[in-house]
Specification:
With 307 residues, the chain is mostly helical. The chain has one domain. It has 15 helices and no strands. α3 packs antiparallel against α10, α5 runs antiparallel to α14 and α6 packs across α9. The longest helix has 27 residues. The protein is globular, with a radius of gyration of 18 Å. This is EamA family transporter.
Length: 307
């Protein structure tokens, strides 16, 4: 159920921030491990999210909303934090097998996966035209995944079996699950709390939990890389800031609209990703990749018509 039209600009803003953040994060991968490149997203994102929440509370003259079910608030936030860590790490891994654009394209199956999770666990049923749009977008993703490979069912199965595809599909599932757990976390806050306060409160809690979890893991397994996260703060800080801005928009969209709709419209990120991949990371792409991206956009338009 859509509770406010603000979900659309929030989602478009999320896609813009996320594509920019992912491009910067891909460059970090050259000097940091997968875990380190992922940690900067939360470690530097947490204080950014806290500042955004503090500013909002000062402007509104209100306090931090307290969960009505504190135990469930932390359970859902913890699960959301874990699935986002897994999704982020798998996405970064996928970049190493193919390029930045294709790795992101695989992860965009989160729209279909999110629609299914929303239907099964949240009772969010989409309209037929919206489901059609999600399916068309998925076709576009498959076109991107098959670029440079044989076509047909056999070619599709071989492409999906590649490491980049498996990592990307896993990342999509992680991000779809994160959206679901975010909605469940925000739902434990008072119903009369505005969407942005609920989103930022959820984001601060989740980022703090993620920083502790992944930071503790790295202290145990990769202490040298943990030091690099702090010594390389000049390049890591922008990643965290953009991550917090993007997540604030994503979380606001999740609060205001069905998970499947938000994830489907968020697929416009692939266009921004292709632009950044071409002009920022100096990557090239083929006519087939462009065709796949156009198909994704066509699917998004159908989703909007069916919303």
């Amino acid at each position: 159920m859509i509770t406010s039209p603000f979900w659309l600009p929030a989602t478009l803003g999320a896609a813009a921030f996320q594509s920019w953040r992912t491009a910067l994060q891909q460059r970090l991968r050259g000097s940091m491990s997968v875990n380190a490149a992922g940690l900067v997203r939360y470690l530097y994102g947490a204080p950014t999210a806290a500042v955004l929440l503090a500013i909002l509370l000062l402007v509104e003259g209100r306090g931090v909303p307290l969960p009505e079910e504190l135990g469930w608030f932390f359970v859902w936030a913890l699960l959301g934090g874990i699935t986002q860590i897994l999704g982020t790490n798998l996405l970064i891994l996928s970049f190493g097998y193919r390029n930045f654009v294709v790795g992101t394209a695989y992860s965009k199956t989160d729209a279909m996966q999110g629609s299914v999770l929303g239907l099964l666990f949240l009772g969010e049923a989409l309209r037929p035209l919206a489901w059609a749009g999600v399916a068309v977008s998925l076709v576009g993703v498959l076109v991107l995944s098959l670029t440079g490979k044989s076509t047909g069912l056999g070619g599709l199965l071989r492409a999906i079996g590649q490491p980049a595809a498996l990592c990307g599909l896993g990342a999509g599932l992680g991000f779809a699950a994160t959206g679901m757990f975010t909605k469940l976390t925000a739902a434990t806050l008072p119903a009369d709390t505005d969407a942005l306060r609920r989103a930022l409160t959820t984001l601060v809690a989740m980022n703090l939990l993620q920083s502790v979890m992944q930071g503790a893991w790295m202290l145990w397994r990769e202490p040298a890389q943990l030091r690099a996260v702090f010594t390389g703060w000049r390049v890591a800080l922008p990643v965290g800031v953009l991550s917090a801005m993007g997540s604030a928009c994503w979380f606001t969209g999740f609060v205001l609209a069905p998970l499947g709709l938000v994830r489907a419209v968020g697929q416009v990120e692939i266009l921004l990703t292709m632009t950044l991949g071409r002009f920022y990371l100096r990557e090239s792409f083929t006519a087939a990749e462009v065709g796949g991206a156009v198909t994704v956009v066509a699917g998004v338009l159908l989703v909007l018509l069916g919303a």
